[in-house]
Automatic annotation (TrEMBL):
It comes from the Eukaryota. It holds the Pfam family Cullin_binding. Residues 1-173 form the DCUN1 domain. Keywords: Signal. InterPro entries: DCN-prot, DCN1-like_PONY, PONY_dom. This is Defective in cullin neddylation protein. Neddylation of cullins play an essential role in the regulation of SCF-type complexes activity. GO terms for cellular component: ubiquitin ligase complex.
Length: 301
């Protein structure tokens, strides 16, 4: 008969888990219209028979993995029937729905290796679902697992999905968006660590140098800090003296305190454009002193 086509071996399946196999055989005949009874009436009668034997429903539920290994479930249609049978056998005390704990345990058994988001789905249901799982949610999840990829591609937000499935998709989108933001921040930190001297600060594209106090030492190895902070410091300045031979000499060690004009002069000394920033009068004064030295040197001879 058509039923035997769903088994790798009729006798082997019956020997591995006889109670579970017989229950599934009767269920398969009822839903496949191989029996003459109405589907709803047939399932109700089968449920009463199973509940009439204490502990039989739990025993069948525990043997589901053994039953799966004995059946040929590669065909999508046969697997759908078996999937619905698992929901049927998971119901307790004639209830139409199943508890969250029971549903999660059944999903982990029957959808293992068939649903890539199985762990995330089960964790989501355990954490957020407060009500029992309906048969509609159970059946729609199988359709969801077949048409939606791990990255949620294939999900139609306008589709007639249960609310629990829609909530799960929104939950996954939040997780994926959070991961994308974290990856972007890690990439930015990686670039910043590569260029340690120009780490970005809030509101700035480059690191601002720390201002030094008036009497604080300067690290001359840092060219950038040296060029910014050298001018305002008090230091020894060499004073020029013209000899009788017109040669300029310097008496080092004369301490001078900078005036505002000295600040500008020192800044020009460390500015590559300082020569362009000197006033014409200063340049002419230096040239005239040089010429006077040359004339005085000739007259002395």
């Amino acid at each position: 008969m058509a039923w035997s086509m769903g088994c790798l071996g009729f006798e082997a399946a019956a020997a591995v888990c006889p109670a579970a196999f017989q229950a599934y055989q009767k269920y398969y005949d009822i839903v496949s219209a191989f029996s003459n009874v109405n589907t709803r009436e047939g399932l109700a009668e089968l449920s009463l028979v199973i509940d009439g034997m204490e502990g039989l429903r739990d025993a069948i539920f525990s043997d589901i993995p053994k039953l799966m290994s004995a059946l040929d479930l590669d065909d999508a249609h046969r697997f759908s029937i078996f999937y619905d049978f698992v929901f049927f056998i998971s119901r307790e005390n004639g209830q139409k729905n199943i508890s969250v704990q029971r549903a999660v345990g059944a999903w982990r058994m029957v959808l293992n290796g068939r649903f890539r988001l199985l762990d995330r789905w089960c964790n989501f249901v355990e954490k957020y679902q407060r009500y029992n799982i309906t048969e509609d949610v159970w059946q729609q999840l199988l359709a969801f697992s077949r048409c939606v990829n791990e990255d949620l591609e294939g999900y139609d937000p306008k589709g007639a999905w249960p609310v629990l499935v829609d909530d799960f998709v929104e939950h996954m989108h939040r997780i994926y968006n959070s991961c994308d933001c974290s990856s972007a921040m890690e990439s930015q930190l990686s670039i910043s660590n590569t260029f340690g001297g120009i780490n970005p600060l809030p509101g700035s594209k480059r690191k601002c140098p720390t201002r030094l106090k008036p009497n604080e030492d300067v690290d001359l190895s840092d060219n950038f800090t040296r060029s910014v902070h050298l001018a305002p410091l008090k230091r020894l300045k060499e004073s020029p003296v013209i000899t009788k031979y017109g040669v300029w000499e310097y008496n080092a060690g004369t301490p001078l305190v900078h005036s505002p004009s000295d600040y500008c002069e020192d800044a020009n000394l460390h500015n590559p454009r300082g020569c362009l920033q000197n006033s014409p009068s200063i340049v002419e004064d230096c040239l005239s002193k040089g010429f006077e030295g040359c004339i005085s040197m000739k007259c002395s001879f």
